[in-house]
Design brief:
This protein is an alpha/beta fold. The chain has a single domain, classed as Ribonucleoside hydrolase-like (Inosine-uridine Nucleoside N-ribohydrolase, Chain A). The strands form three sheets. The chain has an eight-stranded mixed beta sheet, sandwiched between helices.
């Protein structure tokens, strides 16, 4: 008898690297994707929702998609369309969507999915944490139905949006603060690790003709500005969260306490980790410190091989 798959909810803002992460999760037998929720981030929430629906139709999946927040909690949205293209998934001509998201808001859909589950569910946010923060604020009782959060976001060193802030925590730092103070177990797969998780030309060429999804991913990569093949490879930030779920041995981690800077200014969105535990007597997160890059690249190619 095989191991029972891990039930997860993916909270996302597709996004080219989001699309790759979603594909890896859907086709990995170790994971059971119960719900996909969308949020504004890489592009606006109408586009991220449309992109999530495009992916479900492309993969012939009936996983429900719920549209979430179109704005951060307290600040204006700053998107990343310069990285992912105006649509969020530039580079591949997806057919026009024929399905619709759930009629309920993403927060309500998460609450319902959690309350109806017969076992705790893992939340996998690979975007700004707005929906998750609202869930915890409106329905704190849901926390008991969550096994843990495995998120892509934050950084232990430099940022990619400001000098110190990673994009997902920068987009909605107030939401990130609420989530890190929630008491729910958190695994933070941060930018300092994901920026080293490069997919290089050999891997990209290997997937090009593997299957329909490999061709689609290859096309998206031609328009993805998250790194460069000329400078080493493409950065697979969001895919690292999925890798942690199914191949945790690829990562070196440490338990620590993480605070979020949310005041206006050059440090807004920064994740400050007390790695020496000099200022806190308890931890609130497990942070990733390193990743086995060759093994990650091998896993990526193997993952695409499982897709349609």
């Amino acid at each position: 008898m095989g191991v029972k798959p891990i039930p997860i909810i993916i909270d996302t803002d597709p996004g080219i690297d989001d699309a790759v992460a979603i594909a890896a999760a859907i086709f990995d037998e170790q994971l059971d994707v119960r719900l996909i929720t969308t949020v504004a981030g890489n592009v606006n929430v109408e586009k991220t929702t449309d992109n999530a629906l495009k992916l479900m139709e492309f993969f012939n999946q009936s996983i429900p998609v719920a549209k979430g927040c179109g704005q951060p909690l307290l600040k204006e949205l700053e998107d990343a369309s310069e990285i992912h293209g105006e649509s969020g998934m530039a580079g591949y001509d997806f057919p026009k969507v024929t399905t619709a998201p759930l009629s309920m808001h993403a927060v309500e859909a998460m609450r319902q999915t959690l309350s109806e589950a017969d076992e705790p569910i893992t939340l996998v946010p690979i975007a700004a944490l707005t929906n998750i923060a609202l869930l915890f604020s409106m329905y704190p009782e849901c926390k008991s139905k969550i096994k843990r959060i495995v998120m892509m976001g934050g950084s232990l060193s430099r940022g990619n949006t400001t000098t110190i802030a990673e994009f997902n925590t920068y987009v909605d730092p107030h939401a990130a603060a609420i989530v890190f103070q929630s008491g729910v177990p958190i695994v933070m797969v941060g930018l300092d690790v994901t920026s080293t998780a490069l997919i290089t030309k050999p891997e990209i060429e290997a997937i090009k003709s593997m299957n329909k999804t490999g061709k689609m991913i290859y096309s998206l990569f031609q328009h993805y500005r998250g790194g460069s093949l000329k400078s080493g490879g493409l950065k697979m930030h969001d895919l690292c969260a999925i890798a942690f779920l199914v191949k945790p041995e690829l990562f070196t981690t440490q338990e620590t306490y993480v605070e979020i800077e949310y005041n206006n200014g050059p440090a807004s969105g920064a994740t400050i980790a007390d790695l020496k535990m000099a200022y806190h007597d308890k931890t609130n997160a497990e942070v990733c410190l390193d990743i086995d890059i060759p093994a990650f690249q091998k896993w990526f190619v193997e993952s695409v091989g499982k897709m349609i």
